[in-house]
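task queued by scheduler; priority normal; single chain, no ligands, no partner chains; default sampling; output format set to structure tokens
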Amino acid sequence: MCGRGYNGRVEPPLSRETSAEIEEWEVRAWQAMWPAEKADLITSLSVAAREKALASVRDRFPTASPREHFLRLAIETLGLELARRAYPEIDRLDLEE
């Protein structure tokens, strides 16, 4: 990478926890990927992050219905104001928990 960003926008280091050697290998691997492979990777990571967030909601509200889990996840991902506009039924939740 030699001190420049891999796509002109992101400057190294990408992570403080990753060595420069591994980071360079990682960037080369990304550059070698087809666009569809990158899209699949990002989609998989997004799905995994959503599933992890939903699991966290389920752990905190084990007796809630699937709909309530969905609504609470909406609050976490969209913020309360936008989630309320998108799902007015949120006002019926006990948000003090």
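post-processing summary
- The chain has two domains: 1-32, 46-92.
- The mean pLDDT is 88.
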